[in-house]
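Reminder to self: keep the SMILES exactly as supplied, no canonicalising. Ligand is pyridoxal-5'-phosphate.
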Amino acid sequence: MSAAHISIDSDAIRRDFPILSRTVYGKPLVYLDNAATSHKPRGVIRALSDYYEGYNSNVHRGVHALSMEATDRFEEARSAVARFINAESPDEIIWTRNATEAINLVAHSWPQGNIEPGGEIVTTEMEHHSNLVPWQKVAADRGARLRFLPIADDGTLDLSGVDSIINERTRLLTIVHSSNSLGTINPVKELAAKARAVGAAVMIDGAQSVPHMPVDVQDLDCDFLTLSGHKMLGPTGIGALYAKRDALETMEPFLRGGEMVLSVTLEGATWNELPMRFEAGTPNIADAIGLGAAVEYLEAIGMDRVRQHEVELTGYALERFAELEEIDVFGPRDLSLRGGVVSFYASDIHPHDLGTFLDRRGIAVRTGHHCTMPVMGRLGVPATARASFYIYNTEDEVDLLVDALKDALRYFGNGPR
Ligand SMILES: Cc1ncc(COP(=O)(O)O)c(C=O)c1O
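Structure tokens returned for the bound complex:
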């Protein structure tokens, strides 16, 4: 089927991703596991080899040519990430290993002086474990209370009680922008305004939004936003924390050692400028540079078009899934409230069996709880299968998925209800 109305040229984009030409069990790879990790275009892979082959060196320390070149590329990548999310300054971008580490950095360094016993941390029932488990520890350590915005039946947040959940005791609202297991895009700007109105800080988990839609931290008016490079065409092992300068200025360092200090005596130390104060030790230079290349690739396409492509593809997928009466699809039907994630469950077929069946057709989906066990509890299923889209996915691939699911339903004896 042709995809003429789709707003980006996925066929041309596909040629930039070497892995997409491989086969799996003799079938062309249909990669629908982008919420777990995305593939990397040639430009990103080349940025890594260029660094190692051409100017491998440590940053911020050398006066020699290679070190200065590495430092320039490394800092240009930081500027690219800052530009991409419209941070006021590259100094507000702290390199981390991934979104999880970025969240842990905030959970480690921000609560001191900001969350007192009896204070409340508001989050949602649809958080990835990485934006839940660290706050459970903070709440336990500080005598604070965790409060949750519940999930409504349609997979959006139930905001009927929001004005009592976000109240004068709230110290932090920490919320996922786009859910990895339901696909829901949350009204983070409106919720951030509510949190601000009661004097609370705001953190947004952007792991699934920054790769897929325009995100502007100044417009959202958040104090913190976290992202993972590997979900946005970049390498693994690199992520970032965006933090407002005012917040960073008050926070204790996360890790201590080289690079993050200004002066050291045997008795003590003073801290370096931002952002280095939060980047102890030799950073992940190559992968930061690779993430810079990924950002440039996405910018060249345009994030509005990335989003539009996923809206169209998800709309098409929901239409085709409607043919599969035996399969329940979760998450909102309104495409403006939904990212490119389709989580589904066929009663009587365990998602792992379904995933294995699809794999034999070369179709990669994720099965399991997607690190959102409370969401599975809310949906009343042990796990789901999840197809998640990106710029290189096509309507043809959705057709292959739906056709394979029809075969699976026949194979597992779970034909039409
Ligand atoms: C919504 C969300 N938040 C956070 C994370 C954690 O990302 P990472 O494992 O790269 O740290 C993920 C990963 O799947 C995610 O989907």
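Points to follow up:
The chain has a mean pLDDT of 96.
The first helix runs from residue 10 to 14.
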